[in-house]
Amino acid sequence: MNRLVVLSAFAIGFIALVAVQWTVDPVARADTVRSREMIVVVADGAAVSQTELGADYADSFIALVAALQNDHLFTFITTDDPTNVLGPVGAADPEFKSFQNEFQTRLLSEDQQQGWSLADALAEGQIVLGEERAAPGSKMYVLTGGSPRTDFQQLSPRLLSLVNRFGDKGWLIEGVGLPGASPQSIEFLKSLSASSGGRVFELSISDGYQQLAEAILSQGAMGSLAQVGSREMKYNELLSSIISVAPGTREATLLIFKESPYGSLRLSNPSGFEVSAGDRTESSVVETAHVVVWRLVDPVPGNWKMDVRGVEGVVSAWEYSSNKYSLVLRSASPLPLDEPNILVGFVTEGGRTVALNGVRLFANITSPQGGTASYEMKDDGLEGDTVAGDGYFSATLPPLHAQGDYVAELEMVWLAYNHRISSESSFKAQAFPALEVKTLNVDEVRPGERTKVATVFVHVQGGPYPVPAQQLTTSLASPGEQEGMLELEPRRLFGDGPAWEYDVFFTASAPGHHTVAFFLSLEYAGSVYSHVSDSVVISAVAPSSLAVPQVEPSTVEPATTLAPIPAAAPFLRPQIRLGSDRSSFPWWVLAFPAVLLVGAVGAAVYLLTRTRPYGYIYNDRDEPLVDFTQLRQHPVWGVVFRGLVRGSQLSLPGLEKVSFHFKGDLVRLRSRGEHQTIRVNNQPLVGEATIHDRTWIGTSGKLYTFLLSPSAGLEGGIAD
Fold first, then answer.
1. Which of 135, 229, 323, 697 has a 20 to 30 Å separation from 470 between CA atoms?
2. Per-residue pLDDT for 569 more than 50?
3. Looking at the predicted structure, is the pLDDT value of residue 539 above 70?
């Protein structure tokens, strides 16, 4: 029984404690509720009533702001009765229109109480923002003009502390001047808004409403306005404009600002059907005296048509749209300095990658120094792009030399619709570990002898960077199957720890040329990184087989006296007599045929002794692509240029501008004219290079291997 009493008392105490906490600490409780951005409109009733069509301009202003920020809460306050607050109400709520009409009715009322002022209305607006715990970015629009009862010079100092509190909360004060507002009121609005980071907008059909719309879109990162048409019209004139809607448009908004409160607007879809007031399942329209807002949801792509009639004065039409596609940049940040890097971008819809037709994608890269360069990213399977048409766009960046943060703006353009979307991201570039190879005795290696041929240094911008031995590997390409043995010995300071300097020893099993490359693979700066060194060619030569002859001692014989050699008789040309005349034979008649015969024999010997093409080309999947011995050539050119094969004969992408020259056991690869970058064993092809067995050739994202004999499976593949 006592235990039951104790438990009951404890429960009652706990409930009381919770109730006290809920009552006493409403601020702490409100912090758990997610705040929302708000808009408070404070209107100087006297200034509105003193301005011609002032209530219409104010109503059009509210309609424009609500259309562009329909996810905000709105509150309306007038200076004639500031404590009688209208709202808050959501711009998308059904009752918003009734609040807007009530606000306009108050502005048109002639009951201007003398006990209130603009300062009281501003203070009431701050109270509303505080009570609603408005999120940073909330705004107070102050609408005024040439109010005769307001002393703006005395009002500014009184509001100084109020404005400072707005800045502390992250709220903005935006000034709105009615047409014909006095210079004193505009200066007051500028001083009021500048302290909180806001702006002042003077309402006018020519540019005032448009500047207000641009500012709202910019602050909300919703895009920018594109002008559809603008002119000064007469009542019987027609303004017709075309609005191009791109594929993937989620929502398109058309804004029309007109000087006259009258007129008609017709909007037709690409099929020619008019979007009417009775057909708003996919659209909505807000019409006021000076502002008309059409909102199209998931519009059909194509050219929409707008017609404006019956308007006197200035008319301007603007459009902005939001696209359901998003641009994503995928890069392994940070990127290494002083090396080419590949950027990859793609388009998503609802978080999924999509492939689009008829678009071009550009990457605008801004360096830490402020310079900007533009690169087109392509989805054509070339120059770093893996698969054509898979939705992934690629571009190869040249080596980056400046360390720091880079800004990357992706911009996608629909050429057929004159429409573009963009997104911005960033990546970092910094120095990564690199390899430096110093060669020794690479031209004097004897088969069977262990020879030190190089030293490999691992460094970051010249500073030593120790790595474990297993992170440094090698690739060896040798003629035939006689590769020999390649060894790396670390120079360690302590025990079995990492080293930044490695000695390279090579033992050749047979004479020939051996190509060596070194690979560094490790995790650095939070990403997996690989680096390949320049290739090194090691020549193994056979020892000389010429022996020095031994001189045998000889017995000295007595000198023998040689008889003098008689002088040779002079050579006499033979003479031929024919009859009684004496003449020489015409040898010149036989000279010309003899020269032709010798030339023909020499040409035949030259052509028949030229080396026929040999060898094979494989791709990076160990698939045979070219057999030079079976290559078909022109009957005449195949004889004249027997040892020459042009890259255009091979039908291999990237090798069209090179030629293969076969001479004995040497094969040379030569460049012809301008071509895409071609690398031979990771070295750029400049003019000519000698290729050997298992030499790899990289170009345009493709990797080929030259072999002297058919492959049974390539080993130690090399990637550029």
1. 697
2. no
3. yes
Is the separation of the CB atoms in 396 and 404 below 8 Å? no
Q: Which residue has the tokens 């502005």?
A: 107
Structure confidence by residue, pLDDT tens digits, 136-184: 888 899 888 766 666 666 666 666 666 767 767 788 888 898 888 888 8
Instruction: Give 194-199 contacts, CB < 8 A, sequence gap 24+.
Output: 195/160, 195/163, 195/164, 195/166, 195/167, 196/163, 196/166, 196/167, 196/171, 196/172, 197/167, 197/172, 198/139, 198/172, 198/173, 198/174, 199/174, 199/175
Q: Which helix (H) or strand (E) holds 306?
A: strand 302-309
State residue 5 phi and psi, 5-degree precision: -65, -40
Pair 73, 138: CB distance under 8 Å: no
CA atoms of 575 and 559, how far apart (whole Å): 46
CB burial of residue 540 (10 Å; 0-12, 13-18, 19+): buried
From residue 641, how far is each of 61, 655, 706 by CA, in Å?
82, 19, 21
621 phi/psi in degrees, rounded to 5:
-105, 20
The single residue listed with the structure tokens 């009322």 is 109
Please write the tens of the pLDDT for every residue from 115-145.
457 778 888 888 888 888 888 888 899 888 7
Q: How many CB atoms lie within 10 A of CB 568?
A: 6
pLDDT tens for 494-514 read 667 889 899 999 888 888 888
**Burial state string for 226-255 with b = 16 or more CB within 10 A and e = fewer than 16:** eebbbeebeeeeebebebbbbbbbeebbbb
Q: Residue 518 — pLDDT band, cuts 50, 70, 90?
A: very high
Could you give the count of Cα atoms lying within 13 Å of 361 in the half-sphere of its Cβ?
Answer: 25
| Rounded distance between C-alpha atoms, residue 139 and residue 115, angstroms | 26
CA 276 from centroid of its chain's CA atoms: 42
What tokens does 441 get? 């005795």
Residue 695 has pLDDT above 60, yes or no: yes
Contact 135, 37 (CB under 8 A): yes
